[in-house]
Design goal:
single chain; alpha+beta; about 160 residues; Nucleoside Triphosphate Pyrophosphohydrolase
Length: about 160
């Protein structure tokens, strides 16, 4: 996987004093009996362009993580989560900004996945993750997803 190491990632941080961008990210399972989840390619011209990521986006002022997740997933990929559970949080300091990824498992949703923002989408399994490049902040999340497959659960081990 041609990624930058995630050595600077802080997994499940407590209180964060620094200025940061709070992002809701989703692990959207293709179906309950399959082991594939959705990733999206970041558009050109944006921070970390062309890298793959979990779908989601920035929280707006006063918005809860679940509300942001529902809004972003409907806007970006045309689904409305109906059943979600917290997975993990990762704080990462990029040179240009600090990011808190608040990751949730989407276990059920309404609608059909579609690329509403013309982004490239792909369903992936743990065996094919090495074929994609991800931002450093995503790497601990992907490792935890792989671990959840080996333990037989789709929530954080």
């Amino acid at each position: 996987m041609p990624n930058t190491a995630a050595d600077g990632a802080i997994v499940n941080p407590g209180h964060i004093d620094e200025d940061h961008l709070h992002v809701a990210a989703a692990i959207v399972w293709e179906s309950p009996d399959q082991r594939r989840f959705l990733i999206a390619r970041r558009p050109r011209g944006k921070h970390l362009e062309d890298l793959w990521e979990l779908p989601g986006g920035k929280l707006e002022a006063g918005e809860s993580v679940v509300d942001a997740l529902q809004r972003e997933l409907e806007e970006e990929i045309g689904i409305v989560p109906t059943e979600v559970a917290p997975f993990m949080r990762v704080y990462y300091r990029y040179p240009e900004r600090n990011v808190l990824l608040d990751t949730w498992v989407v276990e059920a949703y309404r609608g059909e996945v579609s690329a509403r923002e013309r982004q490239e989408l792909c369903w992936v399994g743990s065996d094919s993750l090495d074929e994609f490049s991800f931002p450093p902040a995503d790497l601990p999340i992907l490792d935890a997803i792989k671990c959840s497959w080996t333990t037989g659960t789709r929530r954080h081990p």
